[in-house]
Amino acid sequence: MKRTLSIFLLIFSFAVNAQFSPQDKKLTEKFFPDFDLEINTPAFAKKKGFTTYDELMAFINEKVSAHPELISYTFIGESQKGKKIPLLSLSNGKSDKKKTKVWMQGGLHGNEPASTEGLLYLIDRLLEDPEQQLLFDDIALQIIPMANIDGYEKQDRYAANGLDLNRDQTKLNAPESVSLKQAFSDFGPDVALDFHEYRPFRRDFARMSEWGITAAYDVMFLYSGNLNIPQELRQFTEEEFVNPAKEKIKANGLSSYDYITSTDYHGETHFNLGAVNPRSSATSYALSNCISTLIEVRGVGIGRTSYKRRVFTTFTIAQSYLQSAQAKADQIKQVLERTENPSAQAIVVKSSRKVRSGKIAVIDIGRNELDSMEVIIRDALHSKATLKRERPSAYLILPGNEAAIAKLKTLGMSIQQLSNGQSMEVEAYTITEYNRKTHSYEGVYPQEVEAKLEIKMVSFPAGTYVISLKQRRSNLSTAVLEPEATSSFIYFEVIKTDLGEELPIYRYLKTKEIQGLK
Ligand SMILES: [Zn+2]
After folding, report:
1. Ligand 1 centroid to residue 196 C-alpha, Å
2. How many angstroms separate the alpha carbon of residue 290 from the centre of ligand 1?
3. 150 Cα–ligand 1 center, Å
4. Is the residue at 183 inside a domain?
5. I need a surface site. Which of 197, 247, 265, 439 has the fewest CB within 10 A?
């Protein structure tokens, strides 16, 4: 009896340990030894836990009173539990007009603490190191260090109402998403970084090899493969921002890879590489015509293990992007000007990933050795269009769809309205396939549709909304308004429809500008 109990306790304590500290010391020491480094941010002023909201605000206020000429802040809104979300602006006295605008955010997922702490370390270094301050001659920097405050306070991924804020970038159903996106649109950055951490011990990893495997990369880079982001912008992002940051990571003895994550594909484990879906920030920001990357540091679920190493990794990438932004300022302006209005390009409504085999580095936990594993990769960076459409010169949306209009405005779209009723030849969508999912996803019941297009004369009432595609974020408008697109307003039930119905969204294809707008 005693023996059974002690075995039970042994197993129980092992299970508890595995949950709270799944990473063996041997593994940490061999592959991820912590850095010996002085970091003057709130979490490192204490032995355990992470930066609280109050500590964050105290840190910010201290920096503002020490450097009022370099840093200021405003609140962009409130978390669901009523905590005000700070947005920091870092710049010097010189006019911001010609500067490259850089946006950085952390803590969108509340259990990825190195994202927030890395940005606080960046702020500390930018303000306390006189050499770093030279960056502000060329760069205007805005930082949201803790985007999901309620989640962060509990070290929980989700916002207080259970929504994943990085699946909410087009439907904007959480108040934090609206505040964040509005601040992003108002600033209109040229370069945007969203910092995260990833979970190195996954359920499906436990089944691979005898004792399971764990992820081997200190950090992964997620830059979008969405085909509506002009090729030139995708390439520029990779060559001038991602690659130099990878070099600096390597020079510091850290390892990196393009973002991969395991996924169940009809019972087999495959690896998704990259992303195309605008429900998440990397693609959403890139479709707003800016240089965008999401950073995943190895950290979720391992507490404060190698925490300085993780914070330093975050900081190193942030600093590298600032250096690239400064060094390439002229080129950035030119590229973004060219990619702003891709008028000749067809719209890719749907795409598929390239399926290929490839090798990834993993750590075999039992042997405590680095391994190379042959896997099936579903590669979003080499996507292929499966549904294309001619690019309209404008979308028209009937009055009565104000929820969609409000979201378009938050996404940064400039919208006009017809002063008087008028008839126009447009393309109308009729829903030919309709499948409303029976289980909810992120608080909605997605509508999967197929639509047929038909040219017809439609009599539009006064007040009809007109969204011209001659604007900076036009690619984002196609992502939410083409009904079959993967995170569209139809998919996310912002506009409800049914089989056989005509949508209240129309495509205006003529080059002659629509008259009578207000
Ligand atoms: Zn995350």
Report:
1. 4
2. 20
3. 15
4. yes
5. 439
CA of 515 relative to ligand 1 center, distance in Å: 45
Ligand 1 centroid to residue 376 C-alpha, Å: 23
Report phi then psi at 161, rounded to 5.
-90, 15
Span from the CA of 198 to the centroid of ligand 1 (angstroms): 6
Report the pLDDT value the prediction gives residue 13, as an integer from 0 to 100: 44
Tokens found for residue 376: 């099936």
286 with 317, same domain?
A: yes
Residue 417 CA to ligand 1 center (angstroms) comes to 38
| CATH code, domain with 53 | 3.40.630.10
Give 164 Cα–ligand 1 centroid separation in angstroms: 9
CB burial of 160-194 (b: ≥16 within 10 Å; e: otherwise) equals: beebbbbbbbbbbbbbbbbbbbbbbbebebbbbbb
294 Cα: distance to centroid of ligand 1 (angstroms)? 9
Residue 55 sits in the same domain as residue 170: yes
Domain that holds residue 365: 351-387
Burial tier of 72 (Cβ tally within 10 Å: 0-12, 13-18, 19+): middle
pLDDT by 10-residue block (mean), the chain, 518 residues: 50 44 88 97 97 98 97 98 98 86 98 98 96 91 98 98 97 98 97 97 88 94 96 97 98 97 92 96 97 98 97 98 97 95 86 96 95 95 96 97 98 97 98 96 97 98 97 95 97 98 98 93
Kindly give the distance from the C-alpha atom of residue 97 to the centroid of ligand 1, in angstroms, as a whole number: 32
- Confirm whether 7 is domain-assigned: no
Gap from CA of 95 to ligand 1 centroid (Å) = 34
Q: Which two tokens stand for residue 170?
A: 């087009």
Distance 355 CA to ligand 1 centre (A): 25
Query: Which residues lie closer than 8 Å to 24 by C-beta, 6 or more apart?
Result: 365, 368
Distance 9 CA to ligand 1 centre (A): 34
How much distance in Å is there from the Cα of 197 to the middle of ligand 1? 6
| β-pair type (213-215, 219-222) | unpaired
Q: Which residue type does 186 have?
A: D
- How far are the Cα atoms of 140, 189, 241 from residue 294, in angstroms, in the given order? 20, 15, 12
Q: How much is the pTM?
A: 0.94
pLDDT at 206: 86
Q: Indicate the residue type of 357.
A: S
